[in-house]
From TrEMBL:
Belongs to the Gfo/Idh/MocA family. This is Myo-inositol 2-dehydrogenase/D-chiro-inositol 1-dehydrogenase. One of its GO terms (molecular function) is nucleotide binding. Residues 1-118 form the Gfo/Idh/MocA-like oxidoreductase N-terminal domain. Pfam families: GFO_IDH_MocA (PF01408), GFO_IDH_MocA_C3 (PF22725). InterPro entries: Gfo/Idh/MocA-like_OxRdtase_N, GFO_IDH_MocA-like_dom, NAD(P)-bd_dom_sf. It comes from Kribbella amoyensis. PANTHER family: BINDING ROSSMANN FOLD OXIDOREDUCTASE, PUTATIVE (AFU_ORTHOLOGUE AFUA_2G10240)-RELATED, NAD(P)-BINDING ROSSMANN-FOLD SUPERFAMILY PROTEIN-RELATED. Keywords: Oxidoreductase.
Length: 333
């Protein structure tokens, strides 16, 4: 099959290389707002490039991958749907809730499959935890702890377009909580602080945050994260049940050390970036997209899944600003 990709920044170039290596993919064509950058990436990977998105969409694509800047997602999704091309889009769908809802309505009114990129759903650890929760092996789940700790902060220029900490960073936790538990969030209480570089605060953002979520079965979920974790990129989840507990992301590469004498676990090199941590998941995710394109698999992460995660993030942002518990019913469906 022939897959087109728009946006060849860090994650886009990574996706292009991954797609090139998939058995189902015969050709990869890339485009970018900077045509010269697209040409350079194409030459480096030995793939094709298109001078712009119009040319890309007109090049007989079987599938369309969106890895461009967030501000372009909504328009590109609409163009993929209008062209009738199965589309994969990195999160988020759009910059705000209103545009997200508009795109969801557009996609759901069509018969074009659209797969949103929440790669943790394809991580073996999260999939194993989900299976144990749903089989009843853990009994009833009473608490979940989830964290996303980045090893280093993004550049200053990224923050004004990021959507804020909850929409950009912990939105992955919000999605995977729904995936692992099969439940919905009914209320949130969130807070945050600017502990590092002042530019986060200058844009009304935070670089450390925490939230307490309550699920519709009364499970409590604590979510925390930071932009400053020099020990390494640390993404984990602990699922605590009445019959047993399980941890995701607890292995030799966990960016955590024990203070107890004689304990040497974990002893491996910590992950430096999210691409190190989730490399196999990204391959599995794009493999799944090729199956969607081929018509042999249903979309594994829909636009409505993305909308639900965005609603939770919006609720957390409102809670942080107003210092109160926010019901998800307050956030437009």
């Amino acid at each position: 099959m022939r897959i087109g990709l728009v946006g060849v920044g860090r994650i886009g170039a990574f996706h292009a290389a991954t797609l090139k290596g998939l058995p189902a993919v015969d050709q990869v064509v890339v485009a970018d707002a900077d045509a010269n950058r697209a040409e350079l990436v194409a030459k480096d990977l030995g793939i094709e490039f298109a001078p712009d998105v119009d040319a890309l969409l007109a090049s007989r694509l079987d599938g369309f991958v969106i890895a461009a800047a967030t501000s372009a997602h909504a328009d590109l999704l609409a163009r993929g749907v209008a062209a009738g091309i199965p589309t994969f889009c990195e999160k988020p769908i759009a910059h705000d809730l209103a545009d997200t809802q508009r795109v969801v309505e557009l996609v759901e009114a069509s018969d074009v499959p659209v797969h949103i990129g929440f790669q943790r759903r394809f991580d073996a650890g999260y999939q194993a935890a989900a299976a144990q929760v749903r089989s009843g092996e853990l009994g009833f789940v009473h608490h979940i702890r989830a964290n996303t700790n980045d090893a280093f902060p993004p550049p200053r220029e990224y923050i004004p377009t990021s959507g804020g900490f909850f929409r950009d960073c912990t939105v992955h936790d919000f999605d995977i909580i729904r995936f692992v538990t099969g439940r919905e969030v009914v209320s949130v209480y969130a807070t945050g602080a600017n502990r590092g570089e002042p530019f986060f605060g200058e844009y009304g953002d935070v670089d450390a945050a925490a939230a307490l979520l309550t699920l519709d079965d009364s499970t409590f979920v604590s979510v925390s994260g930071t932009r400053y974790n020099a020990a390494g990129h640390d993404v984990r989840m602990e699922v605590l049940g009445s019959l047993g507990s399980v941890a995701v992301g607890l292995d030799e590469h966990t960016a955590l050390r024990s203070a107890e004498a004689g304990v040497t676990f974990p002893g491996g090199e910590p992950h430096a970036t999210f691409m190190d941590r989730f490399r196999p998941a990204y391959v599995a995710e794009l493999t799944a997209f090729t199956e969607v394109v081929a018509g042999t698999r249903e979309v594994p992460c829909t636009v409505r899944d993305a909308l639900q995660a965005f609603r939770i993030a919006d609720a957390c942002e409102l809670s942080r600003h107003e210092n109160r518990v926010v019901s998800l019913e307050e956030i437009a469906r």
